[in-house]
């Protein structure tokens, strides 16, 4: 596990003070900072970054919501206020490269900040981890626990359709020598978990089913041992779905970073 | 022959005139929307249109419907080549005027048209069966009642009738070509692999009656085509024309990049700039009257063209997570409502009437529909001609929040949290690094 005493996570402020400029800024996001399930994803990802000896920093108390849920809820004003504040901080530190484990932050930073003066190379953590493995900086050796295990991957809308990244997370699952099984709706046709567009923060409109239940049923139809996710919101929605179906002791919902962190490095 | 040429010219020009008037109305209505600049990336736009509209790349995502559609689409284009000759014959009082110039090629062409006519008949029949006898969900949604349902069937009937008329015309022609009396006028031309099967039905009839059958079929066929041309404006079938500009002017940005508001950007700049003069006159000329969209004239022109281009196929609503789980939202209905409202506004303009007090918001699209969207982009991805219902939903949400402050209570709480402590939940921004110490 992560050892905070010997290898603390440093903030941009601390690094700058020491005259160091990190390779990459890890944008933790609100879920990754505060939500209990998502904090595990954050820690798993940090563990992998440290294992790969990546020099990284976080913004810590200087980080603020990207404004994604405000924009999707229709509050362009609040979104732009958040974006302007964040861009001022990021540009102040001359940040060039950002990695984040949240596809909503990823999409907003990558696609909606440039028009407001924030130009960065932005990567989703599955893309970054895939690069690290390809470059030989991160070694993944799957313990036998994943061998032949059925894992299905749920495409986050803001990573998949919104940014056409379907392969990086799948390539990582294949590295675990697990059996990747696809759901009825996947990739371009992937079904939303129900949390996007600020739905995470409100009850659904009247209907005959919750979206996360529909999606969880599609996932369970593949008889997986693990449902892999790449987004803290999807993770929560699918976990709730699995619990609702009484399958939480049989089927785990885990972020890809969590799957990789449980492997042993060579 | 002289009289029929005059008659043909009159009918033809009236039909074209009416069609032109319809097209002008569509252009005028689309221009009621806000300007939007899509003049960039010309070569990428041509490629996108070629691939998606001309090449039907997204149609084949559903293989059965896609294949049938491609048959009807190619059939439509190919058989329209024959239309050139029919129109020339109509004006000149000639018969198969192109045949002497094309020789053997003419036979090949006519044979090709006939084979496609048969394929179109088969494909359209399957379309009808799919729509009327099979429980394909997207054809039975609430918005597909009344006119939209009838419209879909009418198009199939018209196409069937036109193909039968075309084949009857050829079949009787072929019979007359072989008749001793007909050889002066009905020159030996064309090859009729399909309609020659119909020809034997005329055996035993008099020369004069077969001539009248041939003439009737010829006239009904061209009249039918001209009528169909004028039907387009009232129909979802307009996509056969608008699919092309619609894909050309499509949004080519990553689907996750939602539209940027320059008007809001200016406001924010003013707020964040300590030296800004709050009383200075606005520098941007076309300052909008309000933020977001409440009616069709707040939408941009591409969004309005989207509405006219929609064929109501329902692929968008079929993949919509909200629609799949029984919510009111249907992206197809968003497009249909937009077109209905735009037409309503257009009609009032045509008649010089005072505008009604209705708006797209509330009178056509309810708030419940707008708030059910997860912004997942499945509808945008699924549309075979690059229509973007999501952008309309987002622009209307913007109106609700920025102009009416009427977001659902929980969303207001979320936004207050972001404003106060930089997160959608009520946690202290100073605690953002606590996870690293836990």
Taking Cα atoms only, what radius of gyration of chain A do you get, to the nearest Å?
Answer: 18 Å
The N- and C-terminal alpha carbons of chain A lie at a distance of 16 Å
Main beta sheet of chain B, described?
Answer: none
Identify the strand order in the major beta sheet of chain A: 2-1-3-4
Helices and strands in order, then pairings?
The complex is a heterodimer of chains A (266) and B (438).
Chain A: H1 12-17, E1 24-27, H2 29-34, H3 36-51, E2 56-57, H4 68-72, H5 76-92, E3 97-100, H6 103-112, E4 121-124, H7 125-134, E5 150-153, H8 167-175, E6 179-181, H9 211-220, E7 226-229, H10 232-244, E8 252-255, H11 256-261
Parallel strand pairs in A: 1-2, 1-3, 3-4, 5-6, 5-7, 7-8
Chain B: H1 2-30, H2 42-54, H3 63-92, H4 99-102, H5 104-132, H6 147-178, H7 207-231, H8 239-248, H9 262-272, H10 301-309, H11 315-319, H12 321-324, H13 331-350, H14 360-363, H15 367-371, H16 378-382, H17 389-403, H18 409-421
Helix pairs in contact in B: 1-7, 1-13, 2-8, 3-5, 5-6, 6-7, 8-10, 10-13, 13-17
What brief labels describe this structure?
heterodimer; A: 266 residues; alpha/beta; Rossmann fold; four-stranded parallel β-sheet; 11 helices; 11% strand; disordered N terminus; B: 438 residues; mainly alpha; Fumarate Reductase Iron-sulfur Protein, Chain B, domain 2; 2 domains; 18 helices; 60% helix; 0% strand
Describe this structure in words.
The complex is a heterodimer of chains A (266) and B (438). Chain A has 266 residues and is an alpha/beta fold. Chain A folds into two domains: 12-133, Rossmann fold (3-Layer(aba) Sandwich), CATH 3.40.50; 140-261, Rossmann fold, CATH 3.40.50. Helices cover 41% and strands 11% of the residues of chain A. Chain A has eleven helices and eight strands. Chain A has a four-stranded parallel beta sheet with strand order 2-1-3-4. In chain A, helix 6 (103-112) links the parallel strand 3 and strand 4. The longest helix of chain A has 17 residues, at 76-92. Mean pLDDT of chain A is 92; it is low at 1-6. By secondary structure, chain B is mainly α. Chain B folds into two domains: 2-31 and 62-248; 262-424, Fumarate Reductase Iron-sulfur Protein, Chain B, domain 2 (Orthogonal Bundle). Chain B contains 18 helices and no strands. Chain B has helices at residues 2-30, 42-54, 63-92, 99-102, 104-132, 147-178, 207-231, 239-248, 262-272, 301-309, 315-319, 321-324, 331-350, 360-363, 367-371, 378-382, 389-403, 409-421. In chain B, helix 6 (147-178) runs antiparallel to helix 7. The longest helix of chain B has 32 residues, at 147-178. Chains A and B meet through helix 2, helix 3, helix 4, helix 5 and helix 6 of A and helix 9, helix 12, helix 16, helix 17 and helix 18 of B.
């Amino acid at each position: 596990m992560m050892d905070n005493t010997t290898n603390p996570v440093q903030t941009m402020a601390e690094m700058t003070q020491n005259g160091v400029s990190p390779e990459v800024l890890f944008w933790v996001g609100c879920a990754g900072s505060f939500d209990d399930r998502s904090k595990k994803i954050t820690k798993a990802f940090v563990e992998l970054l440290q294992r790969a000896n990546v020099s990284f920093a976080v913004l810590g108390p200087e980080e603020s919501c990207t404004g994604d849920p405000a924009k999707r809820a229709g509050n362009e004003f609040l979104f732009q206020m958040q974006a302007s504040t964040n861009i001022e901080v990021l540009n102040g530190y001359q940040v060039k490269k950002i990695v984040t484990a949240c596809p909503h932050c990823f999409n907003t930073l990558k696609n909606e900040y440039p028009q407001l003066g924030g130009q960065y190379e932005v990567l989703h953590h599955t893309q970054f981890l895939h690069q690290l493995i390809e470059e030989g900086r991160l070694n993944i050796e799957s313990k036998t626990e994943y061998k032949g295990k059925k894992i299905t991957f749920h495409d986050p809308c803001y990573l998949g359709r919104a940014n056409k990244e379907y392969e990086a997370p799948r390539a990582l699952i294949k590295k675990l020598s697990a059996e990747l099984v696809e759901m009825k709706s996947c990739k371009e046709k992937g079904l939303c978990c129900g949390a996007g567009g600020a739905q995470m923060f409100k009850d659904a409109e009247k209907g005959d089913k919750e979206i996360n239940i529909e999606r969880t049923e599609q996932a369970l139809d593949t008889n997986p041992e693990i449902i892999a996710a790449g987004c803290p919101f999807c993770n929560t929605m699918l976990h709730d779905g699995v619990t609702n179906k009484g399958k939480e002791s049989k089927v785990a919902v885990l972020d890809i970073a969590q799957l990789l962190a449980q492997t042993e490095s060579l | 022959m002289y009289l029929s040429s005059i008659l043909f010219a009159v009918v033809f020009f009236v039909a074209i005139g009416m069609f032109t008037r319809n097209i002008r109305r569509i252009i005028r209505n689309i221009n009621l929307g806000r300007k939007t600049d899509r003049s960039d990336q010309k070569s990428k736009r041509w490629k996108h249109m070629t691939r998606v509209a001309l090449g039907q790349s997204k149609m084949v995502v559903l293989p059965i419907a896609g294949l049938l559609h491609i048959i009807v689409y190619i059939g439509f284009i190919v058989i329209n080549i024959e239309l050139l000759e029919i129109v020339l014959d109509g004006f000149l009082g000639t018969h198969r005027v192109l045949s002497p110039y094309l020789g053997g090629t003419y036979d090949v062409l006519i044979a090709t048209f006939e084979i496609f006519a048969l394929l179109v008949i088969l494909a359209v029949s399957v379309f009808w069966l799919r729509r009327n006898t099979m429980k394909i969900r997207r054809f039975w949604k609430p918005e597909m009642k009344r006119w939209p349902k009838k419209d879909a069937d009418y198009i199939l009937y018209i196409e069937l009738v036109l193909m039968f008329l075309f084949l009857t015309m050829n079949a009787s022609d072929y019979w007359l070509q072989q008749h001793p009396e007909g050889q002066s006028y009905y020159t030996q031309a064309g090859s009729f692999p399909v309609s020659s099967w119909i020809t034997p039905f005329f055996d035993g009839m008099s020369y004069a009656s077969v001539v009248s059958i041939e003439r009737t079929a010829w006239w009904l066929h061209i009249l039918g085509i001209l009528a169909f041309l004028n039907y387009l404006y009232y129909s979802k079938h307009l996509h056969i024309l608008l699919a092309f500009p619609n894909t050309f002017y499509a949004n080519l940005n990553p689907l996750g990049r939602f539209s940027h508001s320059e008007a809001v950007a200016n406001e924010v700049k003013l707020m964040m700039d300590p030296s800004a003069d709050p009383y200075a006159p606005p520098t941007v000329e076309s300052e909008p009257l309000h933020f977001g969209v409440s009616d069709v004239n707040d939408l941009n022109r591409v969004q309005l063209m989207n509405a006219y281009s929609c064929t109501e196929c329902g692929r968008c609503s079929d993949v919509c997570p909200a629609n799949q789980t029984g919510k009111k939202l249907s992206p197809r209905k968003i497009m249909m409502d937009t077109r209905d409202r735009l037409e309503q506004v257009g009609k009032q303009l045509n008649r010089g009437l005072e505008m009604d007090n209705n708006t797209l918001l509330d009178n056509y699209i309810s708030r419940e529909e707008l708030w059910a969207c997860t912004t997942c982009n499945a509808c945008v991805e699924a549309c075979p001609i690059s229509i973007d219902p999501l952008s309309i939903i987002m622009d209307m949400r913007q109106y609700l929040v920025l102009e009416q402050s009427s977001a659902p209570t929980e969303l207001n709480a979320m936004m207050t949290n972001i404003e106060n402590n930089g997160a959608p939940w009520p946690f202290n921004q100073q605690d953002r690094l606590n996870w690293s110490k836990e």
